Amino acid sequence: NYIDYSVWEQQNLESDKMQSEEKYWINKINNFPIQSLNLPYDYNPKAVKTFAGNKISQKMDDSEFKQLEDIAKSLGVSPYILFISAFIVLLHKYTNQNDIVIGSPVANREYSELQNLIGMFVNNLTITSTVNPNMKFSEFLYGVKEQIFEDINNQEYPYDRLIKKLNIPNNSPLFDVVFTYQNTKDNSIILNNDVATLQEIKNNISKFNITLEVQPSKHIINLE
Fold first, then answer.
1. What is the mean pLDDT of the chain?
2. Cβ contact 195:206 at 8 Å
3. Which DSSP helix (H) or strand (E) runs through 223?
């Protein structure tokens, strides 16, 4: 059950593997020029700090989405890597900054014992990338792929623990823009032989300044 997991997780934090992951993340963050993205907001988000927001949804044409998936396949990357790389380049274009840092959540269910366990396991990865305007997009894409592969290999280390280790105030996260790729295909669960469908609760809350969410099963892009 989840209580057993919580006990195991606390013990796991002291393991050699977790110590190695801690070293990986601290070195990565300390060696990257972390800075806020200078996006052209209508107001200063730091001066007006609220969680009020909204979500805009856009359904892509099925054939266009299929073309993007085919492009990713031809380049030998996942659609997730293609989308997040394009998003990073877009942020570079809007901000004129080469060093881009964003967040990206992972399911963090690496072990088979966690697959069917109800509970909150999601962890945020801090994705760092340097955009070279003279580089071909395919080259940049492979660089992002390699970097994120290393990040995922160290995905167990808790983001909130990293913030504390780096002595960063809770109200000053490493990133204020997030990309998420919701590749779960089934939102239904079985309760006492009855099928229940999980539905998102609509609210006017934005947890970050910008969250770009891709739902590949529905070919929908949400901007929060």
1. 84
2. no
3. strand 220-223
